[in-house]
């Protein structure tokens, strides 16, 4: 791995924050409610989904809307960050072609921006928690740790996708399908208990299952996640990051010829 | 774009002593850049899989740069010249660190401010203020640096009033100004400028140049400039390199390289021609320009007036011919008709008499004006104007609207015993050949005939040609214009035909010139060479009377074609003893001062030897 000097670090950090603030400004420019949408959006989503699922499926879940919003917001964080990160290199082709710049900053910035969005949507989660009178426990202090795991995982996946999509644009189309499939393969709207027996071991290989469960444990069920669980979540995040990072580093030199 | 491009190395003029004294800032060492064209076009998995299966990957190679080496020292202002697609920008990208060379290395000593295509990274939705911070960040400035220099940037870009307006509402010039201001607010070690100076208005361009000059003079910044603009490179740079199709053609001082590029860059021609011109260019002697004369009026209508003034007795001439200047074929007819009694030819716009012609006619005592063409070619308004400004003159209008009919009418109009015993038969587009023939045809008062269309000769034209008035018909045009079968009547009447047809205009020129010389030894006495641009002969349309008075030989030239230039060099060298003057018909866009100087150099050198 290359060594990065301190001024370069500072420079890269400034680029990152500038890009995040640019995305933030652009997202809410000229909308009347502006940043409120970041809170309102997951909340309205939750209303729709809980209306649908509590009418048609009737799962026996306590505080179902809270169960739902916890899962779907976290999943959205992963889905949005990987999707936007994937297109980040292609979208900044004009820059990559013209200035010498650390290319990995582009997917990383997208992931960070989605994290900022997620933090805003936590307000909606808090509102729902208050409504259902679920008192926060000390276990909620594990949240930053979980966000770190998810961040590692999403960044790794984002690096991998952004590098590959430069060479094969098909991946861009394919990914939206994968995300949809993944949404249903993760217990976001349904309890794990309804899964057939053979699915349970498979589910153990779904990182999002672990992250979502982790979040529900600390926010909904008031449980303390065990060491094994932490290690699994961390391990999956680190593995994704390493694969994504090294693939990106290997391919980035050729980007300019293809973007 | 020229198809035949020479890429050989012409030479280097950097003195070793000079380069060793300064620190090397940029060192490009045997750099090649290879693009894989097959992979370039593959954008999806299917294509990739197919290509993989067919083993077509890494198949087509394109060498954008081939073994380029150069060194730029501290404080140098280094120009990179070259035609489009020659690899200049690729080289700059490699130096800027955006692109990695396929082979060789590029070493940079210091930080680089790249001005490659300004405004990369601007977001049109954001305001100018936001963009300044964003772009500054992308260029690697720190936040405090941008804050400190914010006012400076705004002031340079002249956008104080519009700071909080989204960039999409800005004009492109304003965007370019901001981009340039941000990029040059820092004092870098190396500044890279890629044709950015061509954006923005004149004032801004000057401002940019001043800023670059300040960086050079006050801060000893090393600058690399890419440009098509020769003059700009010559003005700003001290050293330069010319790159053609990925090869270094020549490097050295900016002045030398620019001069060579100006003459050879973007021109077509064989390597021998190029070498000959290059060698001539390197000849330090300065020719005297007494031997040169140029006819180039502000418009095509002004040139005939100049010609008339330099014609001996031209202004005392009692009769003139007026032809429509936009119709070259009719102008040629005017010259042919003029040969009968050497009347000067003036040209007019189809709708009105140009002011300069109007003035000239009023100055002269004119008793007769012959107007060539019906109202389609010259409007009645022109004739009415002539009646007003020259009431004493008799105005004769040859009222025909097609070139072919007009030619015939003119022949009939002139008394048949005045015309010579030879005639020219040609087609409407063959202006170059007619011009080449003009000295001979004018001297011999040859009438000019046009075909109706390809391969069709008008009936009465044919009758006149075979009627016995002519001993010979000179045919200007190949088989495609005059196929053998349409010439059968001449054979029957026993009239010999001489056909002139060359591979290209220059070849035709040679054929005609040598044919004429075999008959008339005009070039044995003192003569003048008339240079006419093949692409735009509009300044030569009324030169007929002058060709006779000056005893001229006409040479057509394409200043973009080195072979054409050297062809004429050879002619001039062969005739150096009797050549008294070189006359150019065309302004500096047709014949640049450098072209003229080279010709003179060549002439003087051959005179010396």
From TrEMBL, chain B:
Which UniProt keywords are listed? ATP-binding, Nucleotide-binding, Transport
SUPFAM superfamilies, A to Z: P-loop containing nucleoside triphosphate hydrolases
The record's PROSITE patterns line, in alphabetical order, gives: ABC_TRANSPORTER_2
Task: One GO cellular component term, please give it.
Answer: membrane
Descriptive protein name: ABC transporter
Has the keyword Iron been applied to this entry?
no
Q: Which family does it belong to?
A: Belongs to the ABC transporter superfamily.
Molecular function GO labels? ABC-type transporter activity; ATP binding; ATP hydrolysis activity
């Amino acid at each position: 791995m290359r060594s990065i000097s301190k001024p370069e670090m500072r420079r890269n950090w400034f680029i990152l924050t500038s890009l995040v603030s640019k995305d933030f400004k652009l997202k809410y420019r000229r909308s009347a409610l502006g940043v409120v949408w970041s809170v309102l959006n997951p909340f309205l989503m939750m209303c729709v989904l809980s209306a649908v699922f509590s009418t048609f499926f009737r799962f026996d879940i306590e505080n179902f809307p809270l169960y739902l919003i916890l899962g779907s917001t976290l999943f959205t964080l992963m889905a949005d960050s990987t999707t936007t990160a994937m297109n980040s290199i292609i979208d900044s082709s004009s820059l990559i072609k013209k200035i010498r710049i650390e290319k990995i900053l582009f997917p990383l910035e997208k992931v960070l921006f989605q994290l900022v969005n997620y933090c805003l949507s936590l307000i909606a989660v808090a509102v729902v928690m208050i409504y259902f009178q679920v008192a926060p426990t000390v276990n909620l202090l594990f949240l930053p740790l979980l966000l770190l795991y998810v961040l590692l995982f999403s960044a790794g996946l984002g690096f991998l996708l952004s590098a590959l999509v430069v060479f094969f644009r098909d991946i861009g189309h394919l990914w939206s399908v994968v995300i949809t499939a993944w949404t249903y393969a993760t217990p976001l709207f349904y309890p794990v208990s309804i899964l057939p027996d053979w699915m349970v071991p498979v589910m153990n290989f779904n990182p999002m299952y672990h992250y979502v469960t982790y979040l529900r444990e600390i926010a909904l069920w008031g449980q303390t996640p065990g060491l094994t669980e932490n290690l699994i979540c961390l391990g999956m995040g680190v593995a994704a990051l390493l694969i994504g990072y090294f693939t990106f580093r290997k391919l980035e030199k050729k980007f300019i010829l293809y973007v | 774009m020229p198809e035949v491009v020479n890429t050989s190395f012409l030479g280097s003029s950097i003195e070793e002593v000079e380069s060793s004294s300064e620190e090397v800032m940029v060192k490009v060492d045997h750099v090649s850049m290879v693009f894989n064209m097959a992979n370039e076009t593959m954008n999806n998995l299917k294509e990739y899989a197919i290509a993989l299966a067919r083993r077509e990957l890494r198949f087509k190679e394109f060498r954008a740069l081939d073994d380029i080496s150069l060194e730029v020292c501290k404080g140098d202002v280094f120009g990179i010249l070259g035609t489009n697609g020659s690899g200049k920008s690729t080289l700059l990208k490699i130096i800027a660190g955006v692109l990695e060379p396929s082979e060789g290395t590029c070493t940079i000593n210091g930080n680089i401010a790249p001005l490659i295509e300004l405004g990369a990274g601007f977001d049109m939705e954001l305001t100018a203020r936001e963009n300044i911070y964003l772009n500054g960040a992308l260029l690697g400035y720190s936040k405090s640096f941008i804050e400190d220099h914010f006012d400076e940037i705004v002031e340079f870009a002249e956008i104080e009033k519009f700071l909080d307006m989204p960039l999409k509402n800005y004009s492109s010039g304003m965007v370019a100004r901001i981009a340039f201001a941000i990029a040059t607010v820092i004092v870098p070690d190396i500044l890279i400028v890629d044709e950015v100076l061509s954006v923005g208005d004149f004032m801004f361009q000057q401002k940019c140049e001043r800023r670059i000059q300040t960086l050079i003079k006050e801060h000893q910044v090393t600058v690399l400039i890419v440009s098509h603009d020769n003059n700009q490179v010559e003005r700003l740079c001290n050293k330069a390199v010319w790159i053609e199709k990925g090869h270094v053609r020549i490097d050295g001082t900016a002045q030398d390289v620019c001069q060579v590029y100006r003459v050879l860059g973007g021109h077509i021609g064989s390597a021998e021609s190029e070498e000959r011109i290059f060698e001539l260019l390197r000849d330090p002697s300065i020719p005297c320009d007494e031997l040169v004369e140029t006819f180039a009026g502000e418009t095509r209508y002004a040139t005939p007036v100049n010609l008339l003034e330099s014609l001996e007795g031209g202004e005392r001439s009692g009769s003139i011919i007026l032809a429509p200047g936009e119709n070259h074929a009719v102008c040629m007819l005017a010259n042919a008709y003029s040969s009968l009694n050497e009347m000067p030819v003036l040209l007019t716009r189809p709708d009105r008499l140009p002011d300069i012609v109007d003035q000239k006619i009023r100055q002269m005592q004119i008793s007769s004006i012959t107007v060539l063409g019906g109202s389609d070619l010259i409007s009645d308004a022109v004739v009415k104007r002539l009646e007003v400004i020259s009431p004493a003159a008799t105005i004769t209008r040859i009222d025909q609207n097609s070139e072919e009919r007009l030619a015939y009418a003119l022949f009939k109009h002139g008394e048949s015993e005045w015309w010579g015993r030879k005639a020219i038969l040609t087609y409407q587009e063959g202006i170059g050949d007619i011009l080449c023939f003009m000295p001979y045809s004018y001297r011999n008062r040859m009438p000019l005939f046009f075909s109706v269309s390809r391969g069709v000769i008008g009936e009465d034209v044919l009758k006149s040609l075979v009627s016995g008035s002519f001993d010979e018909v000179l045919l200007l045009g190949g088989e495609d214009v005059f196929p053998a079968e349409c010439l059968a009547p001449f054979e029957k009447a026993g009239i010999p035909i001489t056909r002139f047809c060359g591979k290209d205009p220059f070849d035709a020129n040679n054929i005609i010139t040598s044919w004429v010389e075999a008959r008339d030894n005009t070039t044995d006495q003192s003569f003048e060479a008339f240079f006419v641009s093949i692409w735009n002969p509009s300044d030569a349309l009324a030169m007929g009377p002058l060709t006779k008075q000056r005893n001229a030989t006409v040479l057509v030239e394409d200043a973009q074609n080195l072979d054409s230039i050297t062809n004429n060099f050879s002619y001039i060298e062969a005739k150096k003893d009797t050549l008294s003057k070189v006359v150019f018909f065309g302004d500096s866009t047709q014949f640049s001062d450098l072209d003229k100087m080279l010709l003179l150099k060549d002439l003087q050198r051959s005179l010396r030897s």
